[in-house]
Amino acid sequence: MGERRSTKRDLERYGSLFATRMQGVRSSAMRDLMAVTAQPEIISLAGGLPDTTTFPPELMASLMGKVAEEACARALQYGPTEGSEEIKSCIGQVMAAEGMRADPEDILVTTGGQQVIDLVCRALLDPGDVVIAEAPTYPGAVPSLCAFQADVIQIEMDGSGMRVDRMEEALERLDRAGRKPKFIYTIPSFQNPAGVTMVLERRQRLVEIAAEREILILEDNPYGLLRYEGEALPTLRSLDGGEYVIYLGTFSKILSPGLRLGWASAPRPVLDKLNLGKQGADLCSSSFSQAFVAAYFAAQDWRSYLRTLTELYRKRRDTMLDALAEHLPSEASWTRPAGGLFVWATLPAYIDTTDLLARALREQVAFVPGRAAYVDGRGGSELRLNFSGVTDDDIREGVRRIGRIVREQVDMYSTLTGVQAAPPPLTRAPERAPGRALEAAGDNTARVVPLRRATR
Ligand SMILES: Cc1ncc(COP(=O)(O)O)c(C=O)c1O
User: Fold this and answer.
1) Whose CA is closest to atom 6 on ligand 1?
2) Please, which pLDDT band fits residue 14 given cuts at 50, 70 and 90?
3) Structural domains in the chain?
4) 37 lines ligand 1 (CB under 6 A)
5) CA nearest to 401, candidates 415, 390, 388
6) In this structure, are residues 383 and 54 in contact, taking their beta carbons and an 8 Å threshold?
7) Given this model, what pLDDT does residue 25 score?
8) How many CB atoms lie within 10 A of CB 240?
9) 46-76: pLDDT as tens digits
10) With a 6 A CB cut-off, is 187 part of the ligand 1 pocket?
11) CB distance 48 to ligand 1 below 6 Å
């Protein structure tokens, strides 16, 4: 968001010119917050920022030099819409690291994973079409879903990921109303924002349901390789073999979001439609970024930088979990992510985290209020906290400040209502057991607090 807001006069002048579909579109809360949180005095636990300070500047300089020497004209030129052969080979390596084999023909290189979401909506949705998503869902997907006027049904999650049984119930209800979703949008591993991971049995059931009912799944997987403990789980794409899964991958979290490079791997007819959409959107993704990634993969073991990131983020996650245990009152609960970048916290229902954010900004700390992750106004007492882009000291200080303002609210509530602070709920995040594998099937449910229930 720019600094200049539209005036009432502007809105009058341009209002009648906007497409109806933009009426329901609100800005992604994170985008709005980025403007505020760019101020250095604010400790931002709001973004989803990887720590790009860890990338060696001399390596960047030498890769740029290589691109200039070996691929100058090509890097400065338009490229094919589907992406260069070199980068598709890098993508093949990343997908192989997650147990998938993809034919280069089945890959479309995109301008970030974000573009995949937009292209999928563009290719599949007519106004009013149903999309199934998780509750909460990735806040950055909300503007796309709204812009394409999807009727989004959000399915509750627990510590084992999306409640696929609840999803089936929703599908039955839709069936009775003669409706069928166009696609199921899920982030099965280290979900943004909830930090939970879908267990194997649910993954299996989900792809079975998609095949039985011929519904596409959009599997959004930016974080699968950022695992801090436990065993890797198969992606939905590998379980389904590419029949009904549109797979979204990205270089943003394993290398750099500034490159703006992601990809889709999808059944061929779907990929062709995504390609058409991309031609209209931006012709092709940056040739320069693609050449940079190709040079990087040729010069380096990309997994070694991934290990650096994983070790750093694991420590920061632990710092955040310790700080939450120290500073949040017993009425609060939060998830314990085994990977990814986020913790999701739930406060007592009488605390509104959108209001709390205004108070937090005065204390120079920011988070994402929960409503950003729902299309239907739920999430009012929830919040998302990021630990990857912030130093340990800032994590501790940021959580301390949030803890203080939450306690103020809890105290005020007990003073006003005479209701004493409740004892810690049974669902409170458990004590940390460093190094324990938490995600073995059947083990992680008890270790992660249940998320709020869906109401529809
Ligand atoms: C779940 C999810 N999907 C997609 C994206 C988009 O990422 P990018 O466009 O940088 O690849 C993000 C970024 O944070 C994300 O968390």
Assistant:
1) 114
2) confident
3) 21-50+304-418 (3.90.1150.10), 57-299 (3.40.640.10)
4) no
5) 390
6) no
7) 77
8) 22
9) 988 999 999 999 999 999 999 999 999 999 9
10) yes
11) yes
Choose which residue among 110, 138, 226, 342 to substitute to test ligand 1 binding: the one with the highest number of ligand atoms within 8 A of its C-beta: 138
Spatial CA neighbour of 30 closest among 379, 397, 370, 388? 370
Pocket flag, ligand 1, residue 222 (CB < 6 Å): yes
> What gap in Å lies between CA 395 and CA 404, rounded to an integer?
14
Closest-lying ligand 1 atom to the alpha carbon of residue 113: 11
Output the CA 346–ligand 1 centroid distance in Å.
Answer: 23
CB 79 within 8 A of CB 57: no
Query: Could you tell me the pTM of the whole model?
Result: 0.90
Q: Do the Cβ atoms of 441 and 343 come closer than 8 Å?
A: no
Q: How many CB atoms are located within 10 Å of the residue 282 CB?
A: 12
Residues 6+ apart with CB under 8 A from 188: 161, 162, 197, 198, 203, 219, 221, 233, 235, 236
Write the pLDDT tens digit of every residue in 402-449: 999 999 999 998 888 877 655 444 333 333 333 222 233 333 333 334
Is the separation of the CB atoms in 287 and 74 below 8 Å?
yes
The per-residue pLDDT for 369 is 96
Ligand 1 mean position, distance from CA 397 (Å): 27
Both tokens of 423, joined, read 């004892």
Residue 395 vs residues 315, 362, 365, 373: alpha-carbon distances, Å:
11, 17, 10, 22
- Cβ 79 under 6 angstroms from ligand 1: no
Position in ligand 1 atom list of the atom nearest CA 187? 1
Q: Quick check: CB of 192 below 6 Å from ligand 1? A: yes
